[in-house]
Amino acid sequence: MTIATGLIAGHPAVTSVKFAGSRSRGTHEQLSDWDFAVETSDFEALAQDLPALVAPLEPLGQQWEPLGHFPCYQVLLRGPTKIEYLFLDRSQDPLPPLEPSRDTLPAINTHFWDWIWWLTTKASIGRSDLVAEHMSRLYSQLLEPMGISAVPATIESAVEAFVARRNALEQKFGISVDRALESEVRQGIARVLDPR
After folding, report:
1. Mean pLDDT, the chain, as a whole number?
2. How far apart are the first and last CA of the chain?
3. Closest-CA residue to 11 (of 50, 56, 64, 62)
4. What order of strands is seen across the sheet that includes strand 81-86?
5. Is the dihedral of CA 113, 119, 123, 125 positive or negative?
6. Is residue 16 scored above 80 in pLDDT?
7. Residue 22: what pLDDT?
8. Distance CA 167, CA 155 (A)
9. Of the candidates 18, 68, 143, 153, which lies 20 to 30 Å from 115 by C-alpha distance?
10. In the Cβ-directed half-sphere of 56, how many Cα atoms lie within 13 Å?
């Protein structure tokens, strides 16, 4: 993953990029994220340029994590594999849920597939406690604002409920959300949770 550091290390506002998280400590699982702690002299300038900087990775999705207590830029690749650029020396307030609209549905879609893949990685190592905890948060942050009426019991039922409602909202708003990230995550879920 040296390419992940090299792509941003040359930016004039970047003062340091360091390997971080569980992989740096050797406590990671096979599906763990790749985390990099970034220090910058001009956060706003770097934030504006990040989408172009990571473009050579051919992301299927990318977003600023809306619920973190510090800025975290997430890049979602085939695999699925997630790279996170962490700005640990800054703070942020978690954002409220997005109201579904023509403009926000793509961001909601990216957030859902990122989150449901993270839940899948935790299920793969037996962390049913985290899955249950975050399923309620997933519901209140994403699914309930979309009009879904109950907290899903499983990852599979969350996917089914989300896709049905997202498709209905696409028709309502007259748009089509890109399916590349969904396809990659759904293949990953099938491989991890039903490895036949």
Report:
1. 94
2. 30
3. 50
4. 14-20, 34-40, 81-86, 72-77, 61-64
5. positive
6. yes
7. 82
8. 18
9. 18
10. 8
Radius of gyration of the chain, Cα coordinates, nearest whole angstrom:
17
The span from the CA of 36 to the CA of 46, in Å, is: 15
Phi, psi dihedrals of residue 6, rounded to the nearest 5°? -60, -35
Give the global pTM.
0.94
Q: CA-based angle 163:175:154, to the nearest 5?
A: 10
Residue pLDDT, tens place only, 100-133:
999 999 999 999 999 999 999 999 999 999 999 9
Which two three-digit tokens encode residue 37?
A: 């702690």
Residue 4, both tokens: 């992940």
- The pair phi, psi for residue 64, each rounded to 5°, is -85, 125
Rounded Cα distance between 8 and 75, Å, is 13
Give me the phi and psi of 13, to 5 degrees please: -90, -5
DSSP string, the chain: -HHHHHHHHTSTTEEEEEEEHHHHHT---TT--EEEEEEES-HHHHHHHHHHHTGGG--SEEEE-TT-SS-EEEEEETTTEEEEEE-TT---PPPPPPPP-TTTHHHHHHHHHHHHHHHHHHHTTT-HHHHHHHHHHHIIIIIHHHT--S--SSHHHHHHHHHHHHHHHHHHHT-----HHHHHHHHHHHHHHS--
Tokens found for residue 62: 């990318």
